[in-house]
Amino acid sequence: xxxxxxxxxxxxxxxxxxxxxxxxxxxxxxxxxxxxxxxxxxxxxxxxxxxxxxxxxxxxxxxxxxxxxxxxxxxxxxxxxxxxxxxxxxxxxxxxxxxxxxxxxxxxxxxxxxxxxxxxxxxxxxxxxxxxxxxxxxxxxxxxxxxxxxxxxxxxxxxxxxxxxxxxxxxxxxxxxxxxxxxxxxxxxxxxxxxxxxxxxxxxxxxxxxxxxxxxxxxxxxxxxxxxxxxxxxxxxxxxxxxxxxxxxxxxxxxxxxxxxxxxxxxxxxxxxxxxxxxxxxxxxxxxxxxxxxxxxxxxxxxxxxxxxxxx
Amino acid sequence: xxxxxxxxxxxxxxxxxxxxxxxxxxxxxxxxxxxxxxxxxxxxxxxxxxxxxxxxxxxxxxxxxxxxxxxxxxxxxxxxxxxxxxxxxxxxxxxxxxxxxxxxxxxxxxxxxxxxxxxxxxxxxxxxxxxxxxxxxxxxxxxxxxxxxxxxxxxxxxxxxxxxxxxxxxxxxxxxxxxxxxxxxxxxxxxxxxxxxxxxxxxxxxxxxxxxxxxxxxxxxxxxxxxxxxxxxxxxxxxxxxxx
Lengths: 312, 244
Fold this sequence. Notes:
The complex is a heterodimer of chains A (about 300) and B (about 240).
Chain A: E1 2-11, E2 14-24, E3 29-33, H1 40-48, E4 55-60, E5 63-64, H2 69-74, E6 76-79, H3 91-101, H4 106-119, H5 135-147, E7 153-157, H6 165-179, E8 183-187, H7 191-197, E9 200-205, E10 208-213, H8 215-220, E11 228-232, H9 238-247, E12 251-257, E13 262-267, H10 274-283, E14 288-293, H11 298-311
Parallel strand pairs in A: 3-8, 3-9, 6-7, 7-8
Antiparallel strand pairs in A: 1-2, 1-4, 4-5, 9-10, 11-13, 11-14, 12-13
Chain B: H1 2-17, H2 19-39, H3 42-45, H4 51-54, H5 57-69, H6 71-79, H7 81-86, H8 92-112, H9 115-124, H10 129-156, H11 160-176, H12 180-187, H13 192-200, H14 203-211, H15 217-241
Helix pairs in contact in B: 1-8, 2-5, 5-10, 5-11, 6-10, 8-10, 8-15, 10-11, 10-14, 10-15, 14-15
């Protein structure tokens, strides 16, 4: 279990992290979201024991990060922001070094090394200096060192930053396969990632937690949640359709987009209006190209939550 | 202890992974030769000892040792790898000692590679090899003292050039404390006890006393304490500044 209790970190007059508390249970994949500079990295550094909190405390598997740092660090795999490593070493030397420091010996070391090399597809670059590798490979070497000792707790600061879409997909698969029995905390500003891997999302703005929910719940906050978008074959049909849609019970308001030949109908209080809209379209014989139910837009939720916070 | 040796081994390997190690060793040996034979007048002295060689060690170390120590921590902080190192299950003390020992071992290798001069003097005459061995030990201890100072300064700076310059200045003060220039300045008015104290703080005084062939416990303890104190300071500095 990870436990953060009133974690606070000040840098001079600046409060980077302001009284953050949460716990994460095994099986949970927690996504940290927030604008740049919101305090994600500082929070993760306090959990990993790299930055000491000004006040509050962090616990990894029951061990205080400040008072029993070695016990806590043994149970933790950590990918720092930017995946730093020793550039003059090859991945083979580097991972061997990490394995040794982590106390992996003999057969166990060999099997763990084979495992992470396979999982992260590092076979082809094991004997090249890390500084000559592409950003994607460097990130994967960083991930490999984080999981080499098969830790119960993983803290990954932007694990997919700098990866191409295929590599991102692979890393998400990797996180998903490890998720069952581990505690995983990732930070990201790619919102689709939250849906893809996280069971829970915490949004941080100005050092404070402004939302702590499942990704589904977050999406439900969107004004687009349960809205229905219709795209017409011809823009001429838009005006007549707008009037009848607006009159439909359950519809709060509509937004028409002339250029896109589409109308979005927003429901009152998230009620389900898709059947009513579909029936109406059939009854009035609209020539539609598309009709779909919006589940909600994560980027819009993110913006509205974090901007509110910035104004406050 | 496992953490210390693993970190030391990695660090030592890193020296030889870049041209730094080779450049350093070549320059070190070349300067040793120049100082010993041209400035020190090794042949002209016509004495079967290596004092011409060892006399210049403090001055050579003054510039060469900070060149090794400057990257110890400054580079880790600049590249961000310090975050990796400090979140591994090792204490700050283990990391400091491991990296320091690697740097010291490296200097030891460079120093050991001066062995041809020992062969030369043995070929030419019949020197007291005990004295030479003592001087080598003294020289290594002195290098260790300089390195410990450099370790602390490197921990306090992200910029290697700044770390180099500050280290040279502090090492210079530690050297200078034993020179007549400084001692005479105090000798005119200060009580003898103070002059002795200042002299006793000098690397040079202790190095010279060892290189005369007598390994006095006091001199060894002096270097051990200097090293321990500066390494302790390194730990404190890193704890304070690692994440800045």
